[in-house]
Amino acid sequence: MSERIAIYPGSFDPVTSGHLDIIRRSSKLFDKIIVVVMTNHKKQGLYTFSVDERVDLIRRCTKDLSNVSVDSYMGLLADYAKAKNAVAVVKGLRAGSDFEYEFQMALINRKINPDLDTMFLTSDHQFVYLSSSVVKELGHYNVDLSDFLPEQIIPDFQTRINKIRQGGNP
Ligand code: PNS
């Protein structure tokens, strides 16, 4: 039987402990997970980290997961999934408020690529409130981030936020 590959797409600006939890759990369900940094056009121009930096941050947190790889792609998710022979897109659902948007995206992606299903994993209860935006906001106030971000990336994240706070270029 061929490998069952799933894609986990997102902005990951930066990857949070909630994202990492979804990566770990989905890596047990599929033969291979490709975490792919993509562009959300609603956030374009607002990203704190470049695409390459976001890929690097995710790679540093997923080193121990042998069936997880990290990539970036600037086109349509449905096309990327086809090129990679992926059978599913994995998404995390935190609360009901995520559902409407994710439901729409799942239907659009399947319209473009009829072989592509979206599988939703419910967020672990400790990460329900967590988002990259909330972590960035907290970073400005020197809050301990160890419950929110993978420990490997906290120093680099905080350095970047401090630079922004001091008015420097990111
Ligand atoms: O973490 P985000 O910002 O919620 O991720 C959203 C993302 C990047 C997965 C979504 O915007 C996306 O799939 N972008 C790629 C372009 C695409 O395929 N759009 C869906 C059809 S409109």
List the helices and strands and how they pair.
Blueprint: E1 5-10, H1 17-27, E2 32-37, H2 51-62, E3 68-72, H3 77-83, E4 86-93, H4 96-112, E5 117-122, H5 132-139, H6 154-165
Parallel strand pairs: 1-2, 1-4, 2-3, 4-5
Bound molecules: 4'-phosphopantetheine.
4'-phosphopantetheine binds at residues 9-11, 38-40, 43, 76-77, 105, 108.
What does this structure look like?
By secondary structure, the chain is of the alpha/beta class. The protein has 6 helices and 5 strands; from the N terminus they run βαβαβαβαβαα. The chain has helices at residues 17-27, 51-62, 77-83, 96-112, 132-139, 154-165, and strands at residues 5-10, 32-37, 68-72, 86-93, 117-122. It has a 5-stranded parallel beta sheet, sandwiched between helices. The mean pLDDT is 95. Bound molecules: 4'-phosphopantetheine (PNS). 4'-phosphopantetheine is lined by residues 9-11, 38-40, 43, 76-77, 105, 108.
Task: Give a quick rundown of the structure.
The chain has 170 residues and is of the alpha/beta class. Helix content is 39%, strand content 18%.
Notable traits:
5-stranded parallel beta sheet; 18% strand; binds 4'-phosphopantetheine; alpha/beta; single chain; 170 residues
| Mean of residue pLDDT values | 95
Helix content: 25-40%
Q: How many DSSP E strands?
A: 5
Order of helices and strands: EHEHEHEHEHH
So what's the overall shape?
globular
Could you describe the largest sheet, including whether it forms a barrel? 5 strands, parallel
Tell me the radius of gyration: 16 Å
Quote the beta fraction: 15-25%
Number of helices: 6
Order of strands across the biggest sheet?
A: 3-2-1-4-5
How far is it from the N-terminal to the C-terminal residue, by CA? 46 Å
- Any ligands, ions or cofactors bound here, and which? 4'-phosphopantetheine
Detail the poorly predicted runs. Answer: none
SS-derived structural category: alpha/beta
